[in-house]
Amino acid sequence: MTPSLIEIKELHKKYNLSGSIWNSKKRVIPAVNNVSLQIYKGETLGLVGESGCGKSTLARLIARLEKPSSGNIYFKGENIFLYDKKALKAYRRNVQLIFQDPYSSLNPRKSAASVIKEPLTIHRIGNKNQRRESVTQLMEKVGLSREQAHSYPHEFSGGQRQRIGIARALVLQPELIIADEPVSALDVSIQAQILNLLKDLKQDFGLTYLFISHDLNVIRHMSDRIAVMYLGRIVELAENREIYEHPFHPYTRMLLSALPGCDPVGKRRIAAIKGEAGAENDCGCNFQNRCPDKGAICSKQEPVLTQVEDERFCACHLTGSI
User: Fold this and answer.
1) CB 62 within 8 A of CB 6
2) Which fold has domain 4-314?
3) Confidence grade of residue 23 (pLDDT, cut at 50, 70, 90)
4) Is 101 helix (H, G, I), strand (E, B) or coil?
5) pTM of the model
6) pLDDT at site 266
7) Closest C-alpha to 179, from 153, 157, 202
């Protein structure tokens, strides 16, 4: 069995919101709620869900940009929240991010070469000539020319800026890349180029990806396994093909039913989604107010992510009966 590179155990992240002038009561928002997950070395794990479900918060926790309210994350068996300063610096060299917005994620006052070279300088890797050569080689690898090394971000297109961001993430030769909606800000004509580039780089550099998106077509193209997230919880986890051909959780089925198809008449109809995604339930399943299949147990007991088949998990009381 492939060893896990990242293991997440019972992770929680809550944000406290102060009250308003109309309502002084403080609120607690559970952005990540009891998530347990493994990312295997060499795979692409897709993380999909609606905006606001906690995908980016989970990414920031894995990158150790934030600390959890409770729970742990292990990198190669070591708890990342117990790292000292030296170990944390080494961890951040091994875990890099590709950001959603290529316009705001680059320093407008630095040239492309300077942006890519900065991590090497921070980690004191190589001398001046070695850094320059690493940068130019990597620029060519991601589809940029040596002549563009001294150009500034405003001189590049959106797709080219994202290539700079990808090169910056790769320059430290990390093991894990967290790609947080890396193509959602790009034109559709450019998205396929960036996605295919990421797949090629994964093979060339032996990378592991956590690929985050709300676009199910992008997730299908990129992922080996897929985790479906709803209101801070993982509700289904399975191999790519299983998710798309035999979804178990009603939320997964609703997401898939929204995909455009070539045969709208023959497509299985799903009951219309009712209720609001942000509605809070005192107990039971957090999807109950929108679920067309809910039963009596759904309002009384919270479902747990449970293994139902080989490498397949689902958090639904009615799994197998609907």
Assistant:
1) yes
2) Rossmann fold (3.40.50)
3) low
4) coil
5) 0.90
6) 46
7) 202
Show the tokens assigned to 177.
Answer: 């890349």
Q: What separation in angstroms does the CA of 237 have from each of 14, 19, 248?
A: 23, 36, 10
| 208 confidence band (pLDDT: 50, 70, 90) | very high
Average pLDDT over residues 220-226: 95
Give the tokens for residue 288: 């109950």
In tens, the pLDDT along 36-82 reads 999 999 999 999 998 889 999 999 999 999 999 999 999 999 999 99
Read off φ and ψ for residue 30, nearest 5 degrees. Answer: -85, 95
- Please state, in angstroms and rounded to a whole number, the distance separating the CA atoms of residues 220 and 203: 18
Element at 307 (helix H, strand E)? strand 306-309
Token digits of residue 304: 């747990």
- The distance of Cα 306 from the centroid of its chain, to the nearest Å, equals 21
Q: Which H or E element spans position 217? A: helix 216-222
Give the number of other Cβ atoms within 10 Å of residue 20's Cβ: 9
Helix (H, G, I), strand (E, B), or coil: what is residue 227?
strand
- How many residues are recorded in the chain? 322
Contacts of 119 (CB under 8 A, 6+ apart): 93, 168, 171, 172
144 confidence band (pLDDT: 50, 70, 90): very high
DSSP string, 29-71: EEEEEEEEEEEETT-EEEEE--TTSSHHHHHHHHTTSS--SEE
